[in-house]
Amino acid sequence: xxxxxxxxxxxDAARLALSGLRLSVPPGSLTVVAGGAGSGKSTLAGIMxxxxxxxxxxxxxxxxxxxxxxxxxxxxxxxxxxxxxxWTRHVAYVPQDARSYLSMIRSTVAEELAFGLENAGVxxxxxxxxxxxxxxxxxxxxxxxxxxxxxxxxxxxLVAIAAAAVCGAGVLVLDEPxxxxxxxxxxxxxGTIGRLRAAGTAVVVLTHTLVDALAADxxxxxxxxxxxxxxxxPDAVHRHAAKAGVVVPGAGPEAALPAPRAAxxxxxxxxxxxxxxxxRRPRRRLRGRRDAxxxxxxxxxxxxxxxxxxxxxxxxxxxxxxxxxxxxxMALGLIRPDGGIVRVxxxxxxxxxVGELASVAGLLxxxxxxxxxxxxxxxxxxxxxxxxxxxxxxxxxxxxxxxLSAVADVHPYELPASQRRLVALATVLARRPRVLVLDEPxxxxxxxxxxxxxxxxxxxxxxxxxxxxxxxxxxxxRSHCHRAVALGAGVPAAGSGGGR
Amino acid sequence: xxxxxxxxxxxLAASTVAVTLAxxxxxxxxxxxxxxxxxxxxxxxARRLxxxxxxVLAPLWLSQLMVHALFDRAGSRxxxxxxxxxxxxxxxxAAGGLGLRTAAFVLVVLLYSLTVDRAALIRALDxxxxxxxxxxxxxxxxxxxxxxxxxxxxxxQAQAIRGTGGRGxxxxxxxxxxxxxxxxxxxxxxxxxxxxxxxxxGFPGGRNRTQYRSVAFPRSERVLCVxxxxxxxxxVVFLALPxxx
Lengths: 500, 245
Hints:
The structure holds two protein chains of two kinds.
Chain A: E1 2-9, E2 18-24, E3 30-35, H1 41-49, E4 59-66, E5 69-74, H2 84-90, E6 91-94, H3 98-101, H4 109-119, H5 124-137, H6 153-165, E7 171-175, H7 183-198, E8 202-207, H8 212-215, E9 220-225, E10 228-232, H9 234-240, E11 264-274, E12 299-309, E13 313-317, H10 324-330, E14 339-344, E15 347-348, H11 354-358, E16 361-364, H12 377-382, H13 392-401, H14 417-429, E17 435-439, H15 447-462, E18 466-470, H16 474-480, E19 483-488, E20 491-496
Parallel strand pairs in A: 3-8, 3-9, 6-7, 7-8, 13-18, 13-19, 16-17, 17-18
Antiparallel strand pairs in A: 1-2, 1-4, 4-5, 9-10, 11-12, 11-14, 14-15, 19-20
Chain B: H1 6-23, H2 26-43, H3 46-70, E1 78-82, E2 85-88, H4 89-115, H5 118-127, H6 132-142, H7 144-160, H8 169-200, H9 219-240
Antiparallel strand pairs in B: 1-2
Main location (chain B): membrane
Membrane topology (chain B): Multi-pass membrane protein
Subcellular location (chain B): Membrane
């Protein structure tokens, strides 16, 4: 694939989304395109995937060569529209939001993996073989019969990557392929990318984090800033990445954290939880714990105990699907434990009303789509019923802290993923909670966003709030948290004295 | 119905509905409605079926009662009259019969949509040469209730942790109102994003689409379908003739 993008402009946009970009993607190569939020990565992905400009009204001046054919764009309002059915045989694209990639009309992961193959008319025995192969490479065997609508965030990404890889397109474009994956899953994805390249597939990775596992292997690299390539080649990209808002591992400044206070902000004691049996979902009582007699599903959490002190930041780590999100949601009373006690600022989370818990604790969901529902950023951050609406000064402060003051009147969905995540974080901060519970806060954040998050955490800890955040980013946990608690598959959590 | 091929279930449901509507016998409507509830109980969805059917039937019954019973002009056996309201035994019987037929129809259709294996229905439609987009629309429509319930739960949680909710009818009503706009906006956003990615995965594909899992349509079930549909058609024709009814 060869791309020449002189300019790309969205309809009604004041500035160019991309300009002056040349990219040649030979078979078997790995290309890393790095850039912060709003740098033009998603636009580039859309053009490579064939759906931009399409009929969206965007104006592209340039040309694309793919599989021996060339498409010329003259920058006009009626660009040629590519035949996506043919295009997708050569280019597969997994977006940053892996959930939207899944068709959701198939009842098992295996059938979801087959979706693209069915559309391409691949014979059944070949499908069987390719799915078995992809599942083995990404170790998805245990997920194959699961319902795609009931996967964890990390599992969704693995399945989406497998569904794209299985199609055998010559070019594979992956937007943030390692976001939200645990170390083992990230290694499996990196390994799969290596094997696909060995078989001749060209892989293009779009990222705001220069992950060693991929960056080290990249034959070519490009750094984007405000839609313009500012560095070419792995070394140059690495040198200039931090300034362009890209996360560079090892480059983060370590701020000294004040010592935690003695009082407990959030406490888990002997917490147990099992997935309800899928066929017979037990009815939960409105208040209190679930009936122990109704247990018997797959155990997820077994006897988890740890405490987060006031003024302490604790990282919750562990592989995908080990119950981190479940544990975090318990702090706001959204999920009730089967046994044990969750205490939030002195309240029993299983007995207190969600509204009562919400007055002392705030939760950042893993997927901002689950959290954002208003028409502008400011309305979103100010949302609340009359008595518990955040005060205007708290809203202003939260917008400022998250670097959103300039986009306060924009629709949240028009912002890049990194800023959308910060909007969700601002909605939590505006309520000035004493306990901050953050589910994978670093995912989707570019370098600037991470720096803001680091400052926000330091401020929260300094004013005596307790912070519990789940993350796969051990480096972030080391530099911004007092310690880490590791959850393992089916084993009780063990407090580890990581960090400082 | 889950163990049957989706088309067999469809043939049974369609035949039952056609004969019940054509026969217009209160005892047949009642028997069909009861049978649908019993089948739902066996499948473990009696509670959901009853709740959904109640939601659909309540406004229908109310309008039938108003049109046929409360303002009846034709009936001779008057039970009650005040101003424009005239309740007659004939009107009540007509409303009752129509109500029972509606109930039988709604219960059978809902029972089929609750018990059919969605994925199997799409595969069956694909295999039958129906355009893939149509199969997707059918599947998306059948998935609408659970998908909307999931999204509503997510929005409800996001709002609850920002202080909405509370106890009492007023608080519940307020939370329901607050969820409505986000629900519609989120559904549109989701549909827009997913439609792009469906295309990028080659959907709907061409004539040479293949199937990873096909649904077996055993000969016995095909024969059953033909027999049931033929019998139903014959019964409807017979009932429609002057001496039938």
